[in-house]
Specification:
About 45% of the residues lie in helices and about 10% in strands. The chain has nine helices and five strands; from the N terminus they run βαβαααβααβααβα. Strands 2-3-1-4-5 form a five-stranded parallel β-sheet, with helices on both faces. Helix 1 packs across helix 9 and helix 7 packs across helix 8. The longest helix has 23 residues.
Length: about 240
């Protein structure tokens, strides 16, 4: 049994591609570290999912999607989570179950010296890839919830799909609209997920801090965040997948 000397707080950020997750994660990390907390960040695709390299290879080989990360100067056409079909749904059910089990092991293995672990995407982002209008998919979502560790704070950054596509042109705008709706449906099915409107940077950053404070610090509000400039970097190609 893993006996910790402190209570680990688990925070997850989810949402459509281009919603601003990386920016908000860095802002929250800086804020918590300024308060003396020891913070680690984990990327769901790199640190949690099972057989990530094999899944990446098969995605490009079978579905013929572009590699890399899209930018306004270099738009790409990814084909992975936006491709649907009964055979892909069955494969996802199996793989997502493995991911949920491994996620539990990853959280359990976090050093007891860490106060907060922030996940860039979580099992919720995989749930949003399922046909949530189906009762069987909703049943499976509830099963995944029981298998996965429940975050202390789970947030979906809600962005306008057209604006998100302009920032990160990887998936068709039509899919981003469908994907955004899936996150809203998921929040109703799962419960306990806070939706943060992310179009305006500073209000979104303050909302994130207040949600963390209310759920983890037993405070009604958080002090205003001092935004620290975050250098724009292009994440490696495996950071946002199905």
């Amino acid at each position: 049994m893993n006996m910790r000397s402190n209570k680990l707080r688990v925070v997850s950020f989810s949402g459509i591609d281009g919603a601003g997750k990386s920016t908000q994660i860095q802002a929250l990390r800086n804020h918590l570290q300024s308060r003396g907390m020891r913070v680690e960040c984990r990327e769901f695709w790199d640190d949690v999912v099972a057989f990530s390299r094999l899944r990446e290879f098969l995605s490009h080989r079978v579905l013929k999607g572009d590699r890399g990360v899209g930018s306004p100067e270099n738009p790409i056409n990814r084909r992975d989570k936006n491709v649907r079909g009964w055979h892909l749904t069955i494969a996802r059910l199996f793989l997502y179950t493995l991911d949920a089990i491994h996620l539990r092991a990853v959280v359990a293995g976090i050093s007891e010296q860490v106060d907060v672990v922030i996940f860039d995407r979580y099992i919720f982002d995989e749930m949003a890839n399922l046909p949530l209008d189906s009762w069987s998919a909703r049943f499976f979502v509830r099963l995944l919830v029981t298998l996965s560790p429940k975050p202390d704070v789970a947030m979906v950054l809600d962005a306008d799909p057209d604006d998100a596509y302009a920032r990160k042109p990887e998936y068709p705008v039509q899919f981003l609209h469908v994907n955004r709706d899936a996150y809203v449906k998921l929040s109703r099915i799962v419960g306990g997920i806070d939706i943060v409107e992310s179009s305006l940077l500073e209000p979104a950053t303050q909302a994130v801090a207040e949600i963390f404070a209310s759920k983890c610090l037993r405070a009604k509000s958080a002090p205003p965040l001092k935004l620290v400039p975050v250098p724009l970097t292009i994440p490696h190609a495996r950071s946002q997948r199905r």
